[in-house]
């Protein structure tokens, strides 16, 4: 996703509030080989990109940041929202280097919940994990999501992280014995 960012001046709270009032989002970019820099970006442009994203995919979305005369690949590392109107207050981008590993949270998609055999027998689906933190050898190996098929799960059956096929160059940082999803029995 392409996004234009600009250098930001002014560190006072009034300067940052003025930015937000004019429809811009203050932020910062940083990386392993780059000193952090204050930036700003157009709120409407970023919101338009966000509307095209599936829920939960922001941490794995690669952004192509156009900054001055350079193009940087980055991922969103942190985003701060206003607590009542959910307007974006601040955003952090982590610059990706092509030869350095990157750590991201990848969402887990549970496919076939409506057809799950255990749920049809009266159980309920309990998703324990919604994402898994992984290290990728380079930015090009970042998976957008992991999928677990749960259609054939029976009552009191679980799926673990070891049931997720990991692509080459992707290493999970969680224990593979962790339970990701379980079909539990209703009590009562």
In one word, what is the shape? Answer: elongated
Biggest sheet details: 6 strands, mixed, barrel
Q: How widely separated are the two ends?
A: 49 Å
Compressed to H and E, one letter per element, the order equals EHEEHEEEEHEEEEEE
**CATH second-level architecture of the largest domain:** Beta Barrel
Task: Pick out the low-confidence regions.
Answer: none
Mean pLDDT: 93
Instruction: Look at the structure and name the CATH superfamily of the largest domain.
Output: Ribosomal Protein L25, Chain P
Secondary structure tally: strands:
13
Walk across the major sheet and give the strand order. 1-3-2-6-5-4
Q: What is the helical fraction, as a range of percent?
A: 10-25%
Radius of gyration: 20 Å
Query: Which class best fits the helix and strand makeup?
Result: mainly beta
Report the sheet-strand fraction. 35-45%
Number of domains: 2
- Within the CATH hierarchy, at the fold level, what is the topology of the largest domain? Ribosomal Protein L25, Chain P
Number of helices: 3
Name of the CATH first level of the largest domain: Mainly Beta
């Amino acid at each position: 996703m392409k996004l234009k960012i600009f250098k930001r001046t002014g560190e006072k709270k009034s300067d940052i509030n003025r930015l937000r009032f004019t429809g811009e989002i203050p932020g910062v970019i940083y990386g392993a080989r780059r000193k952090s820099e204050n930036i700003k970006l157009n709120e409407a442009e970023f919101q338009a990109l966000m509307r095209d994203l599936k829920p939960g995919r922001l941490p794995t979305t690669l952004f192509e940041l156009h900054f001055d005369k350079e193009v940087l690949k980055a991922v969103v590392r942190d985003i701060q929202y206003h607590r009542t109107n959910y307007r974006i207050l601040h955003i952090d981008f982590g610059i990706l280097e092509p030869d350095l590993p990157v750590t991201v949270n990848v969402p887990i998609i549970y496919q076939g919940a409506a057809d799950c055999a255990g749920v049809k027998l009266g159980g309920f689906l309990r998703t324990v994990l919604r994402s898994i933190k992984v290290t990728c050898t380079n930015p090009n190996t970042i998976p957008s999501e992991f999928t677990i098929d749960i259609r054939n799960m029976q009552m009191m059956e679980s799926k673990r992280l070891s049931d997720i096929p990991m692509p080459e160059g992707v290493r999970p940082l969680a224990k593979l014995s962790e339970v990701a999803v379980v079909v539990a029995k209703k009590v009562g």
